[in-house]
Amino acid sequence: MRTILITGPGGSxxxxxxxxxxxxxxxxGTRTLVLSTDRTDTLGAALGMRTGAEPVRVAEGLSAWRxxxxxxxxxxLAGFQERASTVLDLLGASRLDPEEVTPLPGAEELTLLxxxxxxxxxxxxxxxxVDLPPTAxxxxxxxxxxxxxxxxxxxxxxxxxxxxxxxxxxxxLAGVPMPAEWLYETTARWDVELAAVxxxxxxxxxxxxxxxxxGPAGADAVRDARLGLALRALPVxxxxxxxxxxxxxADGGWADRLVTQQRKVLGEWGAAARPVAHLGHxxxxxxxxxxxxxxxxxxxxxxxxWPVADRxxxxxxxxWEIPLPGAIRDELDLVRRGDELVLTAGPxxxxxxxxxxxxxxTVDGAALRDGGLGIRFAPDPGLWPQAR
Length: 388
What we know:
Elements: E1 2-7, H1 14-27, E2 32-36, H2 42-47, E3 56-59, E4 62-65, H3 69-83, H4 85-91, H5 107-122, E5 127-131, H6 135-155, H7 158-162, H8 167-174, H9 181-202, E6 206-212, H10 216-231, E7 236-244, H11 254-269, E8 273-277, H12 285-291, E9 308-311, H13 312-315, E10 317-323, E11 332-337, E12 340-345, E13 348-353, E14 361-369, E15 372-379
Parallel strand pairs: 1-5, 1-6, 2-4, 2-5, 6-7, 7-8
Antiparallel strand pairs: 3-4, 9-10, 10-15, 11-12, 12-13, 14-15
Helix pairs in contact: 3-5, 5-9, 6-9
């Protein structure tokens, strides 16, 4: 199934573009689901009908779903209280009733990740359109599965989980209680769930559609978004320049300045931008969404991962090619830590495992050219197989 993740700066119209993209795909015969977790039903407002905790049919071939973060959070808390009942009783803690529970910050994000996983696994649709939060929150959300899995592996390594039968003995020897069985089971379940979300994000059929108004703030937001998405190896399928004013709006006054400003930014974005005209009002319903004329869904697959170029014969090194559009040399930082690389680009940071061949190498330098970072790795003579 193809997945289109739609994001952009707050107020750029990303939810409307998500609704229009989904509607256009459905009218072309693609079974489509559009997904959002916005607390206010902005998706329903754009589609012209209410959306909620269960998928609703919007049109032929199109369904919309806005999962209930509150219900999901209550279910998780109830399950935690049940599994941790012994510990809670020893502490004298009182249980929380479902009626008094309100979702904590981050509940919407976790709900969206689970819904993304469930929708991808259901195979009931050919296209999933996801209305993500604004760019900064979306980038943090997309990083969450990988980072949480890394934390879980550090806190409860798989080899420690494998020694479950020895925990009672270890507890007596250490004089302290060992983690309960439910903790390991919960950790394993979370790891599986997060791995499923990671698989969706890493799939070659998953792309990002950026939405921004063509102005100074939009240009800055797009520059940052491209860099943050590249660091996550998420390809940008298209850039929607939303709410573009017609040239006839120029009247010598303030509208003229807006048109000039938009024209300048559109020139900077070039052919990568797909202009969507301003309708003169907030789009509502199928007719308005059709009038937006958003880009069609590109069915081409995207490259997966970052390639490693073998230049042993020519230069005696491997080169790890990492695309980082918009990166600034002075804002780049690389740290090799064991079999991981800590990569910082501007405000974004990611810890990535090295490909297996590069783990037996030492870092020999790096260069930023044409929006791409090339890291040179030289084979370590003490670890690299010797030719006979």
